[in-house]
Amino acid sequence: MSTNEIADRAPKRRRGVVIALVVSLVFNVFFVAGLIGHLVFRAEFGHPPMGPIPRFERASHEMDLSGAQRTAFDGMIATLRQHRRETFQKNRPLFDQIWDQLAKPQPDEKVIADLLAQADANHLAFQKTATAAMESFLATLAPQQRAQFADLAKWPNPVPPHP
Hints:
2 domains
């Protein structure tokens, strides 16, 4: 190997090392920023918000439900889970088709609108089923229990006070 070849490789190696250090620095900055953001969120709000089913389950555990009420509650949760899963299975292919349309150079706006309307109809059907299941469960509760359940189910934790 000649001296010129060695001299030509040195700047390339240095450039590679500098690039690797810059990339490492960028990743470290993003990691630290994400960690700080996560810690700030947890300090201010406690934990990430819960979905409705976990909130309902937490509320039911804080209440003194009778055997019949517990059975009605379990039925409501089973209905919500089943219909949520079915709605997801119906809507997933629709959204895949929407993305396929959007990927085209000339997307067909009518096809996209029709697919969105189908997804909305599926979601509305889920909401109606979920509401009926919720009303069926709530009918087993005394008025005070209904109010207590509604209060407990609204938020994953109390709304943080604003300074």
